[in-house]
Design a protein that fits this description.
The complex is a heterodimer of chains A (284) and B (415). Chain A has helices at 2-32, 46-54, 56-86, 93-100, 107-118, 123-130, 150-174, 177-186, 191-219, 223-228, 236-244, 252-283. With 284 residues, chain A is mainly α. Chain A is globular and about 75 Å long. Chain B has two domains: 44-171 and 316-382, D-Maltodextrin-Binding Protein, domain 2 (3-Layer(aba) Sandwich), CATH 3.40.190; 175-315 and 390-413, Periplasmic binding protein-like II (D-Maltodextrin-Binding Protein, domain 2, 3-Layer(aba) Sandwich). The chains are: A mainly alpha (284), B alpha/beta (415). Chain A binds chain B through residues 5, 8-9, 11-12, 15, 19, 36-39, 56, 119-121, 136-138, 142, 145-147, 226, 230-232, 244-249, and chain B through 1, 5, 13, 17, 20-21, 24, 95-96, 98-99, 102, 105-106, 122, 126, 129-130, 202-203, 208, 259, 262-266, 273-274, 276-279, 401-402, 405-406, 409, 413-414.
């Protein structure tokens, strides 16, 4: 009976989870080599060559990884600091409400908030103007569609930090870090030693898979960089959609090339993350 | 799954799987093809009868509230009252429409999701490329007799003959806009633009979309030396020569563009607010600049003015198409016929409403309508098309657009 239930579960997982993903991937591969698509006429590697030669993919990849990496590091650090500094206060209703509110905000909305607040014609620019700090709207610093992706990172950090606060608080309680801290202190450890040898290792060890997944999630995010990013380089999802929706139908396959490379990378990264997690838990 | 297992007797569980597989594979399979349609040869009476009481799915760009208002509060109730047609609107413009039709072609879907689409020449070119349109149907529409078939702006779209494969709905000219309270003499030629951006750095940009590329086409035409310089089929050598000149000029001016030319707006729509706040001093758009409703809503100042480039700006029409696999072609024809009726076109032209130029030739209209069209109220703020059209140019061949899109990115944005 239990065996059969397991089989049905597995079958459903394959049908609903694996099959659509694999079919989409196979379709993208076929499209990228010209074997699918009404405007394509047979096998060719020219789309792969075009993507490789333009160098746009690598630029976009580096740009996306940079943005995702910085956003995750800043969010994790900020969340860690908030957790350790305000662990007691965070139990209060009003403070936790303020901190967790961004969790309920979808990416698109967060991006629009950023535009409303930080654009040259946005709220802060108007304050600055009325306070006499700037004489014209265009003197306000560049935070939206800017070359350093500050707007994108700010949006990511706003959305992601509360999640990590929640996560670290839970781990802090479940792993009884407070008791362990007391124990370490009673054994003579100073505050710095407790932080670096006890608290941080425990919190990070329990959460690094999720931190890694968040990096992948941000790497592939679409709406926020679409609204807040610049035209070149663009983050991966924006680049892929742009290529797939482009005016020149004969080059749509190039978008699928990027999508295929990106999928392979993300799948490998995910497998690696879980494989290593499994082996560490096995060992532990 | 737990719940399912516990609540169903053992036999049922085995039935569940084939059902699920059937449902899933049913989603992927194509519908059965409909009975052979002979609508191309059918009389209008047959089409009208077939259209009665049907559902028509219409995919259109929904980014403008006056347009949405006209469609939802005028067209939808009218076609319901007159023909008992349920007109259902879904949102989607150029690329989404092309993606949808292409996807359905690739999957062999016989009954498509949409019956009619609102398109411009760019999408027409793409849909013709993938045989995504059904027709010719325009001559079948009774109200098409009010449209002048000789008008080159209505019968040629991006230098491609329309041949009844799409029906014109509106016509408009591209115009540049400025605030006369801030700018005394806006630029009307490329040398004037150069002087202008150097004197007012950061106040001009080119949106990396259809609208921006339409502006670049005006620039390209100016470099060709005449308003008709780009007419005719695509000329590779001419394009190479003119575009090289254009990229040199744009790259020279780039440091004086918005954000020092380090990036460009993805879409023209974001430029409205930047123009309103004074961040940009020059903007542009179809619909003779599209000033009227923005001034009325208080977004633009009343001192906003629209004008054409000295060598001319693009004058073009937008159209309705019927998709190749539309399940309800008769219904779509009935709706389109209503939308080009003298009544619906007059209502559409209301400067306090959608404010969009009719495609009907007034001299062909019956007397009672002629009088109404001649007494039509005029715009308070924006220029009329007749004021601008002395400086108008035809849409050049689609290949110019394809190349401009591609190379504006590689030659200007990424440089």
């Amino acid at each position: 009976m239990k065996n059969r239930r397991l089989h049905i579960g597995l079958l459903l997982f394959v049908l609903i989870g694996v099959l659509p993903f694999v079919s989409a991937f196979v379709y993208a591969v076929l499209y990228s080599v010209g074997l699918a698509g009404v405007v394509n006429d047979g096998f060719t590697l020219r789309f792969w060559a075009a993507v490789w030669n333009s160098g746009e993919f690598l630029r976009s990849f580096g740009y996306s990884a940079g943005i995702a990496g910085i956003s995750v590091v800043v969010s994790v650090s900020a969340a860690m600091w908030l957790t350790l500094q305000f662990k007691r206060e965070l139990q209060h209703r009003w403070l936790s409400f303020v901190i967790y509110l961004p969790l309920a905000i979808p990416g698109v909305v967060a991006a629009f908030f950023m535009v409303q607040l930080f654009a040259k014609s946005g709220l802060f620019s108007r304050f600055a103007y009325h306070l006499g700090w700037i004489a014209e709207a265009r003197e306000f610093p560049d935070l939206i569609n800017d070359p350093y992706a500050l707007g994108i990172m700010l949006a990511f950090i706003t959305i992601v930090t509360p999640f990590f606060v929640l996560l670290f608080l839970n781990v802090y309680q479940n792993e009884r870090v407070a008791e362990l801290t007391e124990l370490a202190e009673s054994l003579g450890a100073n505050k710095k030693q407790v932080l670096w040898r006890v608290t941080l290792p425990i919190l990070l060890r329990k959460t690094w898979t999720l931190i890694g997944l968040y990096f992948i999630f941000l790497l592939g995010s679409y709406e926020v960089p679409l609204i807040l990013g610049q035209e070149s380089p663009q983050m991966l999802s924006v680049l892929i959609i742009r290529e797939i929706k482009q005016y020149d139908l004969s080059k749509i396959s190039e978008g699928y090339v990027v999508a295929v490379i990106y999928t392979i990378f993300v799948s490998l990264a995910a497998v690696l993350l879980f494989y290593r997690k499994k082996s560490t838990t096995d060992a532990g | 799954m737990m719940l399912l297992n516990e609540s169903l007797p053992p036999m049922r569980k085995f039935l569940l799987l084939p059902v699920m597989i059937a449902v899933l594979s049913g989603l992927a399979a194509c519908d059965t093809p409909p009975a052979e349609e002979n609508l191309i040869d059918a009389t209008w009476e047959t089409i009208e009868t077939q259209a009665q009481g049907s559902v028509v799915n219409f995919m259109m760009w929904q980014g403008s509230s006056p347009i949405n208002d006209y469609i939802n509060n005028y067209v939808v109730p009218e076609v319901k009252a007159r023909y008992n047609i349920d007109l259902r609107i879904s949102g989607g413009q150029g690329p989404e429409i092309v993606q949808l039709v292409m996807g359905e072609r690739e999957a062999g879907v016989a009954k498509g999701q949409v019956d009619m689409v609102w398109i411009n020449g760019e999408t027409f070119f793409q849909l013709r490329n993938i045989q995504g349109l059904w027709g010719p149907f325009v001559e079948k529409l009774p109200n098409s007799r009010f449209i002048n078939p000789e008008d080159p702006y209505l019968s040629i779209d991006f230098q491609q003959a329309v041949e009844g494969m799409e029906c014109p709905w509106s016509i408009s000219q591209f115009a540049l806009i400025y605030d006369s309270a801030r700018v005394a003499a806006p630029p009307r030629t490329l040398p004037e633009l150069e002087a202008f951006v150097m004197a007012n750095p950061g106040t001009f940009t080119v949106s990396n979309d259809f609208t921006g590329m339409t502006l670049l086409k005006s620039f390209l035409a100016e470099l060709s030396g005449s308003p008709t310089g780009l007419d005719g089929p695509f000329d590779e050598a001419k394009y190479e020569r003119l575009s090289a000149e254009l990229w040199t000029i744009l790259n020279r001016l780039k440091p004086y563009f918005w954000k020092e030319g380090k990036t460009f707006p993805k879409e023209h729509s974001v430029m409205d607010q930047m123009f309103a706040s004074g961040e940009l001093l020059i903007s542009y758009g179809f619909g003779e600049g599209g000033i009227e409703d923005k001034v009325r809503n208080g977004l633009f100042p009343t001192s906003t003015r629209g004008y054409a480039w000295e060598n001319g700006t693009i004058l073009n029409a937008n159209f309705f198409g019927i998709t190749y696999n539309a399940p309800n072609k008769a219904g779509a024809m009935q709706v389109i016929d209503f939308m080009i009726s003298p009544e619906a076109q007059l209502k559409k032209a209301d400067p306090n409403g959608m404010d969009s130029n009719p495609v009907l030739d007034v001299s062909r209209l019956p007397e009672e309508w002629k009088a109404q069209y001649e007494a039509m109220p005029t715009r308070k703020y924006g220029p009329s098309m007749s004021e601008l059209s002395v400086r108008s140019i035809q849409e050049p061949a689609a290949e110019y657009m394809i190349r401009l899109y591609d190379e504006f990115r590689t030659e200007v944005i990424e440089k």
